[in-house]
Structures are given as C-alpha cells and as structure tokens.
Amino acid sequence: MKIIYIIQTLLLTLIISCNMKQEVDLIVTDAKVYTVDNEFSVEESFAVKDGKFIQVGTSEEILSKYKSDQVIELNGKFVYPGFIDAHSHFYGYCMTLLQADLRGTKSFDEILDIIKTHDEKYKSDWVVGRSWDQNDWEKKEFPTKEKLDELFPEKPVYLTRVDGHAAIVNAKALELAGITSKTLIAGGKIYLQNGEPTGVLIDNAMELVRKLIPDTENETAIKAIKQGEQNCFAVGLTSLCDAGLSKKEVLLLDSLQKSEKLKMRVYAMLSPNKENINHFVKKGIYKTDYLNVRSIKLFADGALGSRGASLIEPYSDDPENMGLIIETNEFYHEICKLAIENNYQVNTHAIGDSANRLMLDIYAKYLKGSNDKRWRIEHAQVIHPDDVNKFGEFDIVPSIQATHCTSDMYWADERLGDRIENAYIYKVLLEQNGWLPNGTDFPVEKIDPRLTFYASVARKDVEGYPENGFQKENGLMREETLKSMTIWAAKAAFEENEKGSIEIGKFADFIVLENDIMEIEENEIPLVNVMNTYSAGNKVK
Question: Would the pLDDT of 10 be above 60?
C-alpha cells in the first residue's frame, strides 16, 4: 500500500508540474545555439511564443518550464540567428529571375546563344539579360553591338553587366533612346568607336535606355518576388536590406507582407526621387515588423570592374580615366540636409578613393563629430590612408560585401596598381567603430551568405585560391564575421533590439546548419548544408 501511495503521489506531482508549465508555440532542444548576445554565449535550447524568443537556456531549464505541441530535438546540430544581408537588391534580383542569366559566361558569343534561346522561349518586346563580365572572357574588353544587331535588328536588347554599372545595347535600343555620337550625359559615359556608339553605356547613360523598358506586370512580379524569397530562405537569409527602391516597389512589398504573402523582413533604402521624398521622407519613418523605411540610397560613383569608380589618380590600366562622380555636390548636400531634418539615414555607394573622400567629407559637415545617425558608406572599397580615420571620427558606418574582394582580386590590381593595398581593408575598417555590417550586393554577387562568411574569413574563392588568402591580414575573425551578418547588420538598420541575436523578446528568426561554421575547416564553409530556416518561429525552409 505504501508503494502504491508513493507512486500515486509522484504521478500527481508530475501532473501538477506539467499543468503548471507554460504553453508555447515551439521548443528547440539539444542544439548548439550561438546566441550572438553581448557575451557571445552558447546555449542548447530555447522556447518561442507569438513569434518571439521567450527563454534561452539549457534543455533541462526549458523543458522544466515550458511545454509545446512542437518540440524539435536537434541532436547537437547548430543554430544561429537568421542571416541578415546588409546590402542587397532583393526586388531587382527577383526581377532578374525573369531575365536571361548571363553570369559565368566565358565569351560574348556564349551570351548570344543564351539570349537567342531566352527570346525564343519568352518572346517579349525587349531582350533583357543580366550579369555578364568581360573580365571572365579571354578577350577582356567591352563588347560592341554588331552581333546583337545581326541577331535582333528590330527588337531592342539591354544586357546589364554583373556590377549593374554598365550595359551593352543594340542599335534598336540606341535608336529608341535617341542616343547618338553627340549625346552627352552627366555622371555617365557612352562609348564611341570610329565616332559612333559601340552600344556600351556606363552608369547614368544606362538610364536613357533602361527607362524605356516596360514595367513587369504586377502578377508576374509577385510570382518572381515569392520565388526570390524562397531562394533566400533556402540559403539561410531571414532579413535583408534592399538598396534603392521606388515608391511603387516599396508599397508592393509592404502589401505582400501585410497580406502574409511575403515573410522576408526588408530594410528599404529609398531612391532619392521626388516621389519617394514626398511620400516617405517628409512624413517620417515608416515601420512594421517586416518593413523599415528610414534611409535614402545615393550613388557617388560607378564600379571598379567597369572603370566607373572615381579615383584620386587615374586608373593604372587606363591612364586617361579617373572614373565618374554620378551627381553634383549640390545634390549630395541637398539630400544630406533633407535627411538630417527628417531623421533619415543616408547610405551612399562609394567604390573609389575619390568618391569615398567626397562622401566622408560631405557627411562630416552634417554629422559634426560623434553621433548615432549611423550614416553608411556602402562598399567602401578603396580608401585613401588619409581618410580612414574619418569613419571613426564621425561614426560613419563602413558597409562591406566580402565577396566583392574575392570576385575582384583577379584583376583589381590592374585597375589600382600599388593602391590595391588600400582596397578591401575590412579589418582596418572594423577597427574604426568596433563594428560593421556585411552583405552580398546580390544580384551583383550570388545570394548565398555562406560565401560571404567564407570570403570574410578565408579571403579565397571556392576553389581555394589564393593558397594563403588575398591580403588576408584584412580578413575578419569568425566571431566578427558572424556578428557582421547578424547583430551588426541589424544595428546598421536600427533594428538590433528586435533581431540579429537569439535573445528574449526578439523575433524568432533562426537557422539550423548541419555543421558548425565556427569550428569546421575553412574550405568546408561554403558546402555547409542549411537544414532549416525559421521566421518568427515558423519553418520557411
């Protein structure tokens, strides 16, 4: 009888204990959880309710306090905060899914075959493609339009270079845009040969043709956006910054998020046009759980690969060229003043040392020393040694994209000569403020954050070249890299209190990896399997 009484008492105690546990939506146990909190602590379990983390600790602690219909035991697998891409072109990437994919082509003739097949399949009014790079060809020179004219004599063709700062178009596109040998465009360049346009357009000259391409129909655009989102979830992205959006694009993303058709969190940088300024900037910050509109995107110069980046001294491989400044100084000052008045962030694309110096000095006039405005220099690729300290002096944020380093390393020294030592100096830039955000700039690069992590740490391409890493003294440590892709990326968007780490009260955005990117061999990092991706505690991959 006594034994029966003890058993009954134990069962009653267990029932009462279970009933006292708090019901939650999700429990994850038996994992190695990199919280990326202030102590960079590692835990093994957490509980999620209403889309947010409500407790983080040991499996024993969580299971003794909480119960759920969904308990995931990970058997020692590895959990990280969802990756945040601090600089991408998400909307633009989604639209490229509808275009001819020219990435990795080895010749212009290969491009011709691709666009011919693409046109036969889709039969649209324009032939549009993206991501060619003449640096990958045997003949590393810009193409000319003659073969495009033969293939498409009556249909306009617009093919964007991988960096988005150059395009090759055919005669029909030039005709529709009214471009001749006499056409001049500030902040852009029209290449000529024997006094006639070759079809190559640089920076602002591209817009003369691009603005003529019909907008994608809404239904088609939505399908592309949803596909793009799934591609991002598949590689562990749960949040991103979209660098340069129109009012129409922002409102479409907002409507999809509000109708729960889009779960990707977006930090939107606005293109600096009157429509955006009147609808958003002058009305203040616009914020939801999934969309944050509080920044303006500027372009100071072009790109190094297309020789549009603005340099203090001429290009080493093009002595007559110092690159381009896209807008007037007055325009940059006007936007910076507007941003200060409306508490908006300014984020400026600056590649060359001249462009970086220009924007650092303009920023300094409005920031006036130490501040928490978090104005950003996007890319910050080539910095003159005299200008590096300005990042720290004025709390200017260098926003880097590590794969630019490993994509450019094959030819960047040809453009820069000895100035290559002042390029891709991520460690030096990190030391300025003690933190920096990291991204991809996709679709300029691939969307995969595993490649960002690898390039930051190893400074090599996926083939393991170069053996000792490219200027590896300016690589980042693994902990620094993980922070740059999570909590620091969130901080760059003023969102560090709601995401970027696995902590109580933050959105339950996290990923599960099969292997530990903090411990495995460098060359294994790009191959790590993303097992699952969760947004607000819901499995999205």
Answer: no
Please, which residues have CB within 8 angstroms of residue 53's CB and are 6 or more apart in sequence? 46, 47, 502, 503, 504, 505, 506, 507, 508
Task: Report domain extents, the chain.
Answer: 2-76, 84-89+216-539, 99-210
Q: Give 72-111 pLDDT, tens digit per residue.
A: 999 999 999 999 999 999 999 999 999 999 999 999 999 9
Write out the H or E segment, with its range, that includes residue 294. Answer: strand 291-299
pLDDT in tens, 129-179: 989 999 889 888 999 999 999 999 999 999 999 888 999 999 999 999 999
**Is residue 200 over pLDDT 70?**
yes
Q: For the chain, what percent of residues have pLDDT higher than 90?
A: 91
3-state helix, strand and coil shares in percent for the chain, rounded to the nearest 5:
35, 25, 40
The three-state DSSP-derived secondary structure of 169-204 is ECHHHHHHHCCCCCCCCCCEEEEEECCEEEEEEEEH
Q: Which fold has domain 99-210?
A: Diaminopimelate Epimerase; Chain A, domain 1 (3.10.310)
Tokens of 49: 């309710």
The answer to whether residues 35 and 42 touch, using CB atoms and an 8 Å cutoff, is yes
Half-sphere exposure for 309 (CA within 13 Å, toward CB): 27
Q: Say what the pTM is.
A: 0.91
Instruction: Calculate mean pLDDT across residues 390-408.
Output: 98
Token pair 């509980």 in the structure block, residue: 47
Rounded CA separation 365/335 (Å): 13
DSSP 8-class letter at 286: E
Q: Give me the mean pLDDT over the 330-348 stretch.
A: 98
Taking the C-alpha atoms of residue 367 and residue 264, their distance in angstroms, rounded to an integer, is: 32
Compute the radius of gyration of the chain from its Cα atoms.
25
CATH topology classification for 84-89+216-539:
TIM Barrel (3.20.20)
> What does the alpha-carbon distance between residue 529 and residue 513 come to, in Å, rounded to a whole number?
6
Token pair, residue 131, equals 């991501």
Token digits for 425? Answer: 């100096």
Query: ∠286-288-291 over CA atoms, to 5°?
Result: 80
**122 vs 495, more confident:** 495
Which of the two residues, 163 and 244, has the higher pLDDT score? 244
Q: Are the C-beta atoms of residues 134 and 143 closer than 8 Å to each other?
A: yes
Angle among Cα 297, 302, 180 to the nearest 5 degrees reads: 115
For domain 2-76, which architecture applies?
Roll (2.30)
Q: How far apart are CA 289 and CA 279, in angstroms?
A: 20
The DSSP result for 48-92, as a single string, is EETTEEEEEE-HHHHHHHEE-S-EEE-TT-EEEEPEEEEEE-HHH
Q: Report how far residue 527's alpha carbon sits from residue 435's, in angstroms, rounded to the nearest whole number.
A: 27
In angstroms, the Cα distances linking 219 to 252, 265, 334 are: 11, 21, 37
Q: What is the average per-residue pLDDT within 391-399?
A: 98
Calculate the alpha carbon distances from 206 to 105, 185, 398, 450 in Å.
Answer: 21, 10, 27, 32
